Amino acid sequence: MSVDTKTVARIAHLARLKVPEEALEPMAGELNQILDWVEQLEEVNTDNVAPMTSVVHADLPRREDKITAGDQRDDVLKNAPDAQHGFFAVPKVIE
Amino acid sequence: MTKLIDMSIATALDHLEKGTFSSRELTECYLAAIEHGGSLNAFVTATPEKALEMADAADAARKSGDAGPMCGIPLAIKDLFCTDGVKTTASSRILGEFEPAYESTVTANLWRDGAVLLGKTSLDEFAMGSSNENSYFGPVENPWRAADGASRVPGGSSGGSAAAVAANLAAGATGTDTGGSIRQPASFSGIVGMKPTYGRCSRWGTIAFASSLDQAGPLTKTVEDAAIMLGSMAGFDPMDSTSIDRPVPDYRAALTGDVKGLKIGIPKEYRLDNAPAEILNLWDQGAQWLADAGAELVDISLPHTSYALPTYYIVAPAEASSNLARYDGVRYGIREAGDDLIDMYENTRAAGFGAEVRRRILIGTYVLSAGYYDAYYLKAQKVRTLIAQDFDSAFQDVDLVLTPTAPSDAFVAGAKSNDPIEMYLNDVFTVPASLAGLPGISVPSALSDEGLPLGLQLIGRPFDEETVLRAGQVLESAAEFTHRPTEWWKENA
Amino acid sequence: MSKLIPGATGDWEVVIGLEVHAQVTSNAKLFSGASTAFGAEPNTQVSLVDAAMPGMLPVINQTCVEQAVRTGLALEAEINLYSVFDRKNYFYPDLPQGYQISQFKQPIVGEGVITLDLPEGETKDVGIERLHLEQDAGKSMHDQHPNFTYVDLNRSGVALMEIVSRPDMRSAEEAGAYVRKLRTILRYIGTCDGNMEQGSMRADVNVSVRKPGDPLGTRCEIKNVNSIRFVQQAIEYEARRQIEVIEDGGVIEQQTRLFDVAKGVTRSMRSKEEAHDYRYFPDPDLLPLEFTAEWVDEVKASLPELPDAKKNRLMADFGLSVYDAGILVAEPETAAYFETAAEGRDAKQAANWIITNLFAALNEQGKSIIDSPVSAAQLGQLLDLIADDTISGRIAKDVFEVMIETGDDPAKIVEEKGLKQITDTGAIEAAVDDVIAGNPEQVAQYAGGENPKVIGWFVGQVMKATQGKANPGQVNTLLKEKLGG
Predict the structure, then answer these.
(1) Is there a single domain that holds both residue C225 and residue C138?
(2) Which of A9, B114, B229, C11 has the most crowded Cβ, counting Cβ within 10 A?
(3) CB B436 to CB A55 under 8 A?
(4) Residues C85 and C226 reside in one and the same domain
(5) Which among C440, C438, C436 has a CA at the least distance from the CA of C459?
(6) ipTM of the complex as predicted
(7) How do strand C265-268 and strand C255-260 relate by DSSP bridges?
(8) Is C106 at the interface with chain A, CB within 8 A?
(9) Is C91 in contact with B325 (Cβ distance < 8 A)?
(10) What secondary structure letter does DSSP report for C78?
(11) B242 to chain C, minimum CA–CA distance in Å?
(12) What is the CATH number of the domain that holds C429?
């Protein structure tokens, strides 16, 4: 499987990373190098092998249905690049 | 008496208890050392005022008989742990001036036990790297230099923490280890680094790189110090669903020096054809030390070892691509303007993340994307199961596995920056235990031909940190690694 | 009811599947301890987890898990003892983590069924494909500022159940009946308040059209429709739109659309035009969700009687019609009201009073049965007064009106207003005599057999003379006697 510049552009957009046009080609090269290398896993027979879900063998802990957080708007907003009237503000989205 | 900053945590604790000196005095010595160690670039943020406040509080606690197990010990904290009211960067530009309103569980545990915060140490951005060259705040220098005086990388990603401990800028430091990020820099910097079992230390409040692998641990001058520090860091945390609810043993008490009858596995697959002879020789030497102490050496096979790195470089970037989606310029960190929302996202993330982080996000996004998930991500998780099973079966027969920590000594800055895979190969001996979630320690064991430190790694059964530490200390005693780097950085101060 | 839609080229069949997002009734969110209460100031019910601060981790709320299992059991669905939480990755300002924690390959609940109640007592089974737990997103407000979208994360992380139907519905009415029935079930078991105005229930509506017998057509998904009426309107519009496109020689593109409430039309969503690639993978911050069959049995044992069972019981035990039983079980509160009022009494009469009189009165006041000024016990007392002949059915209606106004007990009203029925034969006889004496023309009509129905007119006159208090039975008997019936 080889990645072309179009694929890099698509993946970069999915990941919301701006990759300038001239960087697509070198990036495709780097990604292909890494992908070629990881593809050695194809040699491993994984028939009837379950994928790892977690190295931890335990029950998923559950919390009680109690209100233990909230009412901390200042903490929530204090690092925001743009907060207005208690909201986070972002460039306008048109649906 | 040795200089205060040369002391191990254990020794310093004895003196603090006896009243030879106070935590404030000890802390002041370290703060001065940090000031003189600026050219190492180990710290992103020093917190001298907070340090002195905490030291005074520790002294007061000791006076009133409330001294915790780390009372008054000044520590450096990898800048991946969120610290309440102290800027936290992950060595990334994208977090800007981010100041958490919360404290990570691991650091909170340390402060509970009386430790003192000296500052936040540099790392490879978001813990992605093996040289600490991927920091927005510039590379960290290894306190160790080659015989010819050439500078070296401290390893990574916990390179700032490793350098700080190696240069006596802190009594100990926290690190995080995803694929070797504690053990490899410990090996490069001539100190002890321990990654406990996945689930032993809480991940809450530690900035995530790869959630199924990330685990906090100590970087210290001695194995005993690692035992003391891990005892404070570890513990069940109901806020982390992957944290394990079992009591924290007295790790220091486990250091009996007795490894008689312990079975030490020597995995043949780690004997890489292209590994330097000095690495292989040290490995043999380490095995001999343990045998001399009464342990039994057992040849074992971990057949899927060679697939660990490619597995890791699918799983870790995949998780990272998702974990790092939250850095979007909306709630914290920097924002770069754009024509519209999507443009703002793309500009912010392109400007905020460094090259290696961007590369891993792209790889991770690709291997999870439609049509490729099964071939890459699912396949890797299956191979991961096989790798974990390799260890499971080995541990039917042996108590520990002994390997080199890294395939080389510390390399020259820039030597591997142009070839990502060359860089990734640094983690060849550390990644398998990470994938299986097992505890591992790196113990400084010898100097290379170039006069640089080399470590040996011990890997244990899940939650058997005690045996790992016990045998680690036996290695440490046998190796008698007392070398120190020349303190060149002081001349530059 | 014809289900087919006539087009220029013949009849068309509309095929509908629904994905309903139902907010789980819980105090705290799915993975954090922040409150789920509706209507708080922006960003005041946001924990550091909900804001996706660096290093924050999810811990699941046991009650939300139990609610999902209850719902699955109520839908007669398979409960999966092992399920997995996945991350669904996409960027949006009201999705702080950059992913939604959801369940993709292994949901908590598998296949089930809902029986729709259609007009004329008909029923239809609609398959449930799955139910899974997921986090709600925050709220983006696009109309508060000319240049900015404002983001409120209060809803971020609230537990939702996504309930996915099979494409088994064939008309807007069936879709409406589906949502109504689902809402009824959720309210019965208390797992969702079903309040569509507050967004506790929203539907994504999948619509496609085909010629009867043809394979399924390309579907369009109408997102986030928040009332049953809009669901139906959106389907009607969308089906016609698709038919027109196809009949004009076009093809339907698979699309996400919005329902424009003001215009009653669906339109393509600009922001969702690009192809989705959600990159689902198991959330490494969570372990698989596992529980035992014994625990599921315990949950099952704790379920209340479900609407279908209750309906059948009301029909069997009380002899109610399908129609009446259906109305009474639609809301658990109504069913409870009925059962209290009907206990030990004439159940059909109780049903009539509720469906006719009580509902009309509540409707007029804009109140729900929970806020009814007349309690079920009070309605029961009123029925008792009718049964023991204290008042007539007609007077009871007057008494009921006063009860609605004042909330007073019926006995008190009857006493105070002197509405007690006249059963004293002498008094009634006098009134009857007066009426007969005063209306010789009608007496003649009756006697001549020209108009036997005039007896009713006489009863009315007597009732009028006694302000309705005379016992109608007695009046009837006396009149017949005296008129020589």
Answers:
(1) yes
(2) B229
(3) yes
(4) yes
(5) C436
(6) 0.97
(7) antiparallel
(8) no
(9) yes
(10) P
(11) 7
(12) 1.10.10.410
